[in-house]
Design a protein that fits this description.
By secondary structure, this protein is α+β, with helices and mostly antiparallel strands. The protein has helices spanning 15-26, 54-63, and strands spanning 2-9, 31-37, 42-48, 68-70. The chain starts with a strand and ends with a strand. Bound molecules: copper (II) ion (CU).
């Protein structure tokens, strides 16, 4: 089933940070679309929850160096 979430993600400072997060998330099988906004401290993700989990999405963002504050 497709799930849509908007996560609050801090420390993105420019378009490069957005591209970094977007690239790492879209590399995950099951992630369908990603929209990252450093201005809004937000990352919107559509994903197939039979292929990946919200936990691994959060881990990937945090692993890229951007703290995830909430879902
Ligand atoms: Cu940046």
């Amino acid at each position: 089933m497709i799930e849509s979430v908007v996560l609050t993600v801090t420390d993105m400072k420019c378009g490069g940070c957005e591209a970094n997060v977007t690239g790492k998330l879209t590399a995950i099988e099951g992630v369908i679309s990603v929209k990252a906004s450093f201005k809004e401290d937000a990352v919107s993700i559509d994903f197939d929850n039979e292929k990946t989990t919200l936990a691994s999405i959060k881990d990937t963002i945090a692993g890229a160096g951007f703290p995830v504050l909430s879902d």
